[in-house]
Amino acid sequence: MQYGLDAPKHLDGMFSWVLFDRKQNRVIAARDPIGITSFYLGWSSETPGAVYFASELKSLHPICDKIEAFPPGHVYDSNTGALTRYFQPSWWDPANVPSTPVDYLTLRHSLEKAVRKRLMAEVPYGVLLSGGLDSSLVAAIAQRETLRMQDATKAAIQNQTGVSDLVGIDDSNELSTVTTLQQLHSFSIGLPGAPDTEAALEVARFLGTKHHAFTFTVEDGLNALSDVIYHLETYDVTTIRASTPMYLLSRKIKAMGVKMVLSGEGSDEIFGGYLYFHAAPNREEFHKETVRRVKNLHLADCLRANKSTSAWGLEARVPFLDKEFLETSMKIDPADKMITEGRIEKYVLRKAFDTTDEPDNTPYLPEKILWRQKEQFSDGVGYSWIDGLKDAAEEHVTDEMMKNPKPEWGSDVPDTKEAYWYRTMFDEHFPASCAGTVERWTPTWSKQTDPSGRAIATHNAKYKSVE
């Protein structure tokens, strides 16, 4: 292998792979910097010295009695049996608090480039559009790039140019291949009358995408729960809540022939978008928490996006977790990111795409969407979804069961009936040896253990954006 253990440093994208060097009788394995794709390694007491790799727990647990998540940004070498971190960005150490003032245009251009990279595809693609800020920005940029590619395609056909194998356009408007591009498709899902569905429709109309708004019922979601947990391979409450609608949506998208979608994961972790960030005591703690959240994405939102979609053979790409964009956004002084009076969460991201002072530039989004308050996906699909889950858990888990958790759970005891219910479903699919790969998502600086945004006191607060 040309670069040896440094090979992953030369890759830009999401990946998990195992390579066998026949000449050296050597195995090298690696996972992308943030862990967008799932990857595990395991060991079996029956085959000492052997190491097993797989993208799913269900492939390993029949063989292995010890399983761990392959750490993101690491490379494995069979010569030493060691895992070595290859991804070492300047922001990785939370003690190094950045002091670079935000540059709004640089931030904007960096995200545009990240989206542009991920539009290189030879398959039908679309965008997941919840109507929240993150997915709406990704959709807005994707639509601009799609229209730009269509114009470049027409020009290339007229000039009889374009010879590459991949579909895409670079920063200089050079088309990499000639293709006929269809209208950009966008997709949303929610309970009837859900706040996100209404917002998504407004964004789609504004952008001009071909939008597909699907609905589901609480019963649909409850019926899918066991399958969702089987594919997700987790019992974390917030991940399951948000993954179920995404799982149902992915099935519908794949049935339409679409094979790749862009999604907005990562933004809340980078910019402190979760409502509990209102309680951050200072810039140092704010930055420390964003770094922790980004590092743990492979256990939560990346796991959800990857497994909810891949369960149906759909690929999800996440522009916010582009290496260059991470370097740009994580080096911003956290004081600029903090939520203060007059500054809504993710203010710097919103401001970067606010073209109010640019009369020659078409707005990226309607103002009410650009400055819309955060809704966590499991809330935005319809508030009765979480209420329905809690009601169903009450029917399945008794007070007596809560008092007598299973001994094999050790100290990892569910603190709600909903969490208990999910853990029992997880145990139906996976042995106890798999539980070590799961981490629960809970807010910091809050007495609330419920991850729903509605549980945070600031959920209904009103904001007025100012410079």
UniProtKB/TrEMBL annotation:
Alphabetical keyword list: Amino-acid biosynthesis, Asparagine biosynthesis, ATP-binding, Glutamine amidotransferase, Ligase, Nucleotide-binding
Residues annotated as domain Glutamine amidotransferase type-2: 1-81
Catalytic activity entry: L-aspartate + L-glutamine + ATP + H2O = L-asparagine + L-glutamate + AMP + diphosphate + H(+)
Cross-referenced Pfam families: Asn_synthase, GATase_7
A cellular-component GO term for this protein: cytosol
One GO biological process term: asparagine biosynthetic process
UniProt cross-references to InterPro entries, sorted A to Z: Asn_synth_AEB (IPR006426), Asn_synthase (IPR001962), Asn_Synthetase (IPR050795), GATase_2_dom (IPR017932), Ntn_hydrolases_N (IPR029055), Rossmann-like_a/b/a_fold (IPR014729)
EC numbers on record: 6.3.5.4
Gene3D superfamilies: Glutamine Phosphoribosylpyrophosphate, subunit 1, domain 1, HUPs
Entry-linked PROSITE patterns: GATASE_TYPE_2
Entry binding sites for ATP: L128, I189, S263, G264
Pathway assigned in UniProt: Amino-acid biosynthesis; L-asparagine biosynthesis; L-asparagine from L-aspartate (L-Gln route): step 1/1
Molecular function via GO: asparagine synthase (glutamine-hydrolyzing) activity; ATP binding
Residues of the site described as Important for beta-aspartyl-AMP intermediate formation: E265
Superkingdom of origin: Eukaryota
PANTHER family reported in the protein's UniProt record: ASPARAGINE SYNTHETASE, ASPARAGINE SYNTHETASE [GLUTAMINE-HYDROLYZING]
Name of this protein: asparagine synthase (glutamine-hydrolyzing)
Organism expressing this protein natively: Aspergillus campestris (strain IBT 28561)
